[in-house]
Amino acid sequence: MNVLVINCGSSSLKYQLINMQNEEVLGKGLVERIGIEGSKLTHEAAGKKIVIEDPMKDHKDALKHVLSALVDKDHGAVADMSEISAVGHRVVHGGEKFASSVVITPEVMDAIKECSDLAPLHNPANIMGIDACKEILPNVPHVAVFDTAFHQTMPKDSYLYGLPYELYEKHGIRKYGFHGTSHKYVSDRAAAILGKDIKDLKIITCHLGNGASIAAVEFGKSVDTSMGLTPLEGSIMGTRCGDIDPAIVKFIMDKENLNAAQVDSLLNKQSGILGMSCISSDFRDVENAANEGNELAQVALSAFAKRVKKYIGSYMAEMGGVDAIVFTAGLGENSISMREDICEGLDGLGIVIDKEKNNVRGKETVVSTDDSKVKILVIPTNEELVIARDTAELAK
């Protein structure tokens, strides 16, 4: 069975075609600038990489280009579309309606649309992708895999805010958490690498990229996570502020004469590492500036590391200890210095990083010292594979 995995943004579409017999990636790519000038498809398959620049007015148009590339005689991955058995769709927010992946039906689509209020930047784009795929590939099963589903195991005292309970009942205001497929994948891999049953392990997973979240995974289940009602809460991120005093929102509105939407945009798109460093949202740019002595860059990176360290400490307290800490995603997998900064000073908690082993990028490995009580691992995430596995299971 070959499963096509689709991850749609508002103007982008990422995809992978995976052979589920051996989990080999047959083809993958990215469409950028959908609906705006300069649409481009970058496609890799059969050892070749091509770039197609062609106007793509909407997601359906983009998907036609993707499928055409996948069956191309020269650079395709399969002979024809009949070799695509099912399609798995990443859906960011499933609210409380979905604690696991589901085959997409009209009722499921209605429920995903109802969750759009909770993820206005993401769910509408996911819906556009699903609609386009179902129109072009109407005779194969389509499966929705939710970012929020893994965190539905959180207990009530983890997901409720200190707000009037009626707001939760009326509007569903609670912590949902995100990056669920990534946290699930790397916690499962950590157990496999350590040769332990995940039901015997307490793991803290650090998904650190431009978007960042930390999760406490106890005996295979998420019991707490840093992101909340939206992906704005939690650690400082590339352009998102993360945790702040809620009173700051009104203070900024009054002092800067901004409305709610403008402050929301400021907190989501102009804050975080970008806002603090005044340089970039790309951690590599900020690290380079810090190495050249830029004080604001140094402070921004130090604040990021401190915030992640606080989450690690709080989750250790919450779970009564931890057996393993996992670093994943772009920054977690590739920044040697950030992993060291986060683990610095945690020796007293049994967390000791081995600087020689830690000199690694994007490779699955253990980077703690041999006598560290808590194992520290680097595990490249693979959200597409989780989506493909769930899709294959439901499409049987």
UniProtKB/TrEMBL annotation:
Active site residues according to the UniProt entry: 147 (proton donor/acceptor)
GO molecular-function term, one example from the UniProt record: magnesium ion binding
Binding sites annotated in the UniProt record for substrate: 90
Ion transport found in the keyword field: no
PROSITE patterns, per the entry: ACETATE_KINASE_1, ACETATE_KINASE_2
GO biological process, one term: acetate metabolic process
Cofactor note: Mg(2+). Can also accept Mn(2+).
Annotated site (Transition state stabilizer): 179, 240
Known catalytic reactions: acetate + ATP = acetyl phosphate + ADP
Taxonomy, superkingdom: Bacteria
Required co-factors: Mg(2+); Mn(2+)
Subunit structure: Homodimer.
Task of the protein: Catalyzes the formation of acetyl phosphate from acetate and ATP. Can also catalyze the reverse reaction.
Similarity comment: family membership: Belongs to the acetokinase family.
Name assigned to this protein: Acetate kinase
Protein's organism: Peptoclostridium acidaminophilum DSM 3953
